[in-house]
Amino acid sequence: MHSRLTTRQRPPHAAAAPWHGAAAARRHAARLAWSSLAAVLIGVLWASAASAHAAATKTTPVSGAVLDEAPSEVVVEFNEPVTP
C-alpha cells in the first residue's frame, strides 16, 4: 500500500529537523550583531574625524555683536595652527 501526503500532513523529515529554525535565528542574530558593531565603528570613526578640525577660540569683534558699521578688520584665533 502506498501512502500519499496531503496538504495537512507533514513530511517525515519535517518533524525531525526543528533545528532549521534555530540555526536561522542564530545566523540572523549574528548578522544583526556584526551590523550593529559596524555601525558603531563607523560612527566612532566619523566623529573622531570631525573633531580633528581647528576650532575658533576668540573672535574680534565678538561673535553676535551688533555694530553700527562694518569693522575694518575681523580677527579669528584658533586652538591650533591652520593652513590655507
Structure description:
By secondary structure, this protein is of the alpha+beta class. The protein has two helices and two strands; from the N terminus they run H-H-E-E. It has helices spanning 12-15, 19-50; strands at 56-60, 75-78. It has a two-stranded antiparallel sheet with strand order 1-2. The longest helix has 32 residues, at 19-50. The chain is rod-shaped and about 100 Å long. The chain starts with 11 loop residues before the first helix and ends in a 6-residue tail after the last strand. The mean pLDDT is 79.
Low-pLDDT stretches are none
The major pleated sheet works out as:
2 strands, antiparallel
Q: What fraction strand? A: 5-15%
What is the helix tally? 2
Give the N-terminus to C-terminus distance in angstroms.
Answer: 90 Å
Order of helices and strands: HHEE
Kindly state the mean pLDDT as a whole number?
A: 79
Q: How many runs of DSSP E, i.e. beta strands?
A: 2
What is the 3D shape? rod-shaped
Q: What is the percent of helical residues?
A: 40-55%
Strand order of the largest sheet: 1-2
Rg over C-alpha atoms, rounded to the nearest angstrom: 33 Å
Structural class: alpha+beta
